[in-house]
Amino acid sequence: MKKILIIGYGTMTAGIVKNLHKNKDFEIIVFSRHLENLSGSIILTRMCEVLALSDISAVISCFKNDEELVAFGKVIVNSQFINHGTIFIDMTTARPSKVLEYKLLIENSKGRFVESPMTGSKIGSYNGGLSLFLHLEDDLRENRLLKDIFKLISEHQYFFEESTEPSKFKLLYNTWGVALLYSIAVFNPKYYGFTERSEIVANQIISNDGWMAKVCNSKLQQINSKQFDDVSFKLDYSLKDIDYAIEEVFLGKVREVEYLVQQIRKLNQECSEKDFSILGERVDE
């Protein structure tokens, strides 16, 4: 049996755990301070229980911010469950500098680090359809355990050449996605005086024709019907990601991103727990 340790249990990791259970050679251990039971998994609620583990083959983590990522790395260094070659797959959306700090903590403790920020919906997580942005050492490319894990949880794996490039790209990717959502708030036909029937036609066009079709087909109906309580990704997390991107990707030099983060910060004061799709709804000044 291969022991797989999952750090945290949230929207995306719930789907990951579900799919990992399909491999009968995996023993799934979940560390969560808030989870009481989970069918088929061993639940740990205290860090001391984690540190007492041994013979862990892989650790999969997805922290809500990179401060938690580095703090975890500092706690586990030189702990007994890091065997020579224990694989640490981290999916946190994080600043490249923090990813590098965590990577060095793991590697200095003889662990193997796999940088793997991911994207995908809650449904995609449950269906094993995540996309992974990866960097790992060449000798891990053919690692059987990694291949088995990736096959269960992801549909696409994209390999970057240098360490921290996946994380830098993920921040760029997330910010671009937020900008596309915000464009719906600006250009949604509902705000421009079309008749009811003509608005239906306009929505059909923007959801099926042209460059905007993919985002509108995915999000327009949700935005127009104000369905922001079924959260796949919190608005507060979007704000965190853009702050990271401004600091370490855009370096404070892209005026449009600075404006965008100002709008998100205003909205986040009252809607931080809502789904980030709320960015596509126009807010009256």
UniProtKB/TrEMBL annotation:
Pfam families to which the protein is assigned, alphabetical: NAD_binding_2
GO molecular function: NADP binding
Domain spans labelled 6-phosphogluconate dehydrogenase NADP-binding: 3-134
Source domain of life: Bacteria
InterPro entries: 6PGDH_NADP-bd, HIBADH-related_NP60_sf, NAD(P)-bd_dom_sf
Gene3D superfamilies assigned to the protein according to its UniProt record, in alphabetical order: NAD(P)-binding Rossmann-like Domain (3.40.50.720)
Entry protein name: 6-phosphogluconate dehydrogenase NADP-binding domain-containing protein
Organism: Lactococcus lactis
